[in-house]
Amino acid sequence: MELTKELIKRNIIVLSAGCSSGGLENVGLMSPSAAELAGDSLKEVCKILGIPPVLNFGPCLAIGRLEIVAKELAEYLKIDIPQLPLVLSAPQWLEEQALADGCFGLALGLPLHLGSSPFIGGSKVVTKVLTEDMESLTGGKLIIEDDIIKAADELEEIILKRRKNLGLS
Prior knowledge:
This protein has helices spanning 2-9, 19-26, 40-49, 63-77, 96-108, 124-137, 148-165, and strands at residues 14-16, 54-56, 88-90, 111-114, 141-144. By secondary structure, it is mostly helical. The protein has a 3-stranded parallel beta sheet with strand order 3-4-5, with helices on both faces. Strands 1-2 form a two-stranded parallel sheet.
């Protein structure tokens, strides 16, 4: 919840799927009135469109819906998915399904933030691929950071850099 609040405050719209959606909805972040918590640019967009700054895309297994959004955006902009100003985050992942969804995002070339390390330490190969090689393989990047502000800083930096590369600053 706190990471989501920090991201919308920084004018970053949040698409939620899975376990986090219920909590975000319960605290009102999926209500149009939550636009008041957003940065000025996002607040204006939300008010014009009558939408909240956090949109629910359904259960964990709906990760494919997010891929459809990424694919459609990339096609519209005539770019590859790894160039999109999109990031994934599971700051409090609860089960392996979230990690599988995250790996799907990494394979698409999207950065993935986790608040705690996944169970990868038993394999040197998996650890190396996820923490060192992923960016050169797909464009994805695994970020493990439990500090909300540091995580928001890194996610925002990636988004702003990609926006700038696309001329969307």
